[in-house]
Every structure is written in C-alpha cells, then in structure tokens.
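Below is how a single chain appears once it has passed through the pipeline. First comes the sequence as given, then the structure the pipeline wrote out for it. We keep one example in the README because the format questions we get most often are answered faster by looking than by reading.
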Amino acid sequence: MRLLFFGRRMTMGKKLRCTAIIMAAGKGKRMQTAVSKQFLPVCGKEILAWTVDVFEKSPLVDNILLMASADGKEDVQHLWDNYGWKKVAAVLEGGKERQNSAANGLAAVEEDTDIVLIHDGVRPFVTEEMIADSIVAAQAYGGAVIGVPAKDTIKVCSADGMAVETPDRSTLWQIQTPQTFQRDIIVNAYEKAEKNGFLGTDDASVAEFAGHQVKVVMGSYRNIKITTKEDLVITEAFLKEESLKENKKEQTAPAEKGNSVKKESQEGKAESKDQKKVVIYTDGACSGNPGAGGYGVVLIYGGTKRELSEGYRLTTNNRMEVLAVIKGLEALKEPCQVTLYSDSKYVVDAIQKGWVTKWKANGWYRNKKERASNVDLWERLLVQLERHQVTFQWVKGHADNPGNERCDELARGAIAAGNLLEDENYQMP
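Resulting structure:
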C-alpha cells in the first residue's frame, strides 16, 4: 500500500483546503435584459443559484467567495440569505474587467488555502466530477482548466473580415470553467500581470503569461456559459431533461434508486451530517484476459489523497475492476458518503441496474442455467454498500480524466512491479 500526493508536498493528515471564487459581477449586455443574466430565473431558480448549489454540494470545496458588481452586491447577498449557503464566506465587489474581479477575489483568499477554483456564475451545468477532476489536475500540474474539443472549423480573419488562416481543428479546444490552480501559482501570476499591465481573456492566460503550464481537462458540451437569449432556451431544456431523469429515478425499482443496492439499506440509513464525504476513483487492468492483473484506487477526502494498488499473477479485468471498488471502500475506517467513479460498465451497471441484487436473489445465477461470475467479490462489495452510502458514476476511460488516468497508471504499475499476489478465488473457465 502506497501513500502519495499530487503537486506540492503535504504532511500526513493535512486536509487540502479548496476555495471557489464564483464570478457574478457581469452586466450581461448581450442578453439585452433589464435584469443581469446571473439573476434571471430558469425553472424556478436563479442561474447563479443553480451554479452555487453545485459548489455547495461538492465535498472538496471548503469556501466560496461570490464576486458581484457594485450595484449587484445586494442582490447576491439576498440570494445567499434566501438559499442559506453554508460554504459562502463573503460577497465581494468585483472590478471593471473580469480579471480585476478575479484579482479582488484572490486577494481575499485565506493564506492556508491550497487550491483555488475560479468559475463563471452563469455556468450552472458544472458538475462535481468536473470540480474533482480539475482539483486533481491542478495538484499534479499546478493549473488546470475544463474544456472540450472544438466542433466547428475556426477561421482567423483580418480586420475587414477576410479569412487569412484555418488552424488545425484537432489542436483547438473551447475552454470553460472552473479554472483551477495551486494558490501560490495563480496569486503570483495575477501579481505579475498587474505589474506588467497584462490583460488576459481568462485565468489560464494570466497563468501562461507568468510562465506556468496549464493542463486542459475534458469537460462537457453541456457546460455552457449563458450569454444570450438563445442560451436560456438551451438551459431550460437541459434543466427539464435533468428533472425528468430525477423523476424517473424516483419511480424505478428500489434496487436502482439512488444507485443503491437496496432501498432500505441505502435510503433507510440515517444520514448523519457528521458523515465524511469521500470521492473515490477506481480502475482495473489486465495484461491478457485472463492474465496478470492489477487495480488502482485514488481516495479523496477534503482534498487529501491516498493511493492504493496491488498486482496479481493470474486474474481477469472484471475481477480487478470490482476489487478496486472493494479496496477503496474497505480502506474507509468509518461509514461515509461516497461518490465513486469507475470506467467499468460491468461494475456500474451491475449496481445501478440492480443486476447484483437479482443475481443474489436467484442464488447467484444470472438466469436459470448460467451462474454469475465473481460471486466472492460481489459478496464483499455488498457488505461495503451496506456500510457506506455510495453513489456510482461511470466515466469514459482514457478520456483525459485525471483521476481515472491515475488509477490506470497505478493498476498497470502494480502489474509491472512484479511480486504479484495470487488471486486465490479466481477459477479458470
């Protein structure tokens, strides 16, 4: 078992402190509405409120600073009072330009903060996964931004509108937020920019000006910045779609509800406010299938990271995927609220679609003739799902997800390291 940390060296047991600066000082001239766009209601809630709620729920974010215009501070304060956000530390006045507002926010970030996330208040479709991925990447690289590959061909045009260059689209990304940095890096970058009169288009450009590399992490095409009236139509459609999905979950069988194995075991648990919120990434790998295999796990609690990995002489990829989940959950010393990311459809579907419950009810048979595989591991996993409140999230493998990529590195590294263990319960078909 290895204990490693990304980025700056940290002492054992030190909790990584993360502060989110949410930009809500814009006027929204392109929206052409009397009310600034961040205060426009969509599906019963203000756009800014949808955004802040995501950071409020993230187990990795400790503090939130809200940046407002001089004439918008009262409105932002009203939202804070109305929704009762507990992580919001202050409503601060922004500046003339976005960069000035970010600088004001950075000046208010406490010195013991390790990671700073800067996010547009009118990007309500940011997810907890994006937040976690950007934090992991910022620790590894110093700075990270969320983005997506450009879909359209991009033209460089002259002042009179004539196309003069067509960049290679495969190298172009549309950059989103959050933009996430180790605190010292982004604070020093903004100080250098101010000293030299540099005005960037985003926080990453400021960091780049100061000589820092920035990692681009895959985001989502849904993570739009609401700028025009057309964006409001898209936003309402997305929110209605999400609402329908939630309603569908409420109407599904108990085995599927909330990604739990049993309604009574997961929903019936008393949810303690003192329960730790943990993020876990897992992955399994196999050299040949069957063949030598390994698993990798990254556990995140409050930003403190712990890494686990082991290799086995003869096993299968599916066994390593399930074992990775088990090892991650077994490493927790007390019942926790866990968000678990895996790129294994075998694992995630087995839980979310209630397959495991059905197999167990059928005496561990998938159907009348076919026995379920890896029963020993599923039984161990069910024990952990009774102990913890676990929400499973599938992520696409090898798609620039830092947590998933790190787990893959750990799993393959465990195979290559030798001294492989015996998977005693694996039986050759």
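The chain has two domains: 18-245, 257-416.

See the next section for the split statistics.
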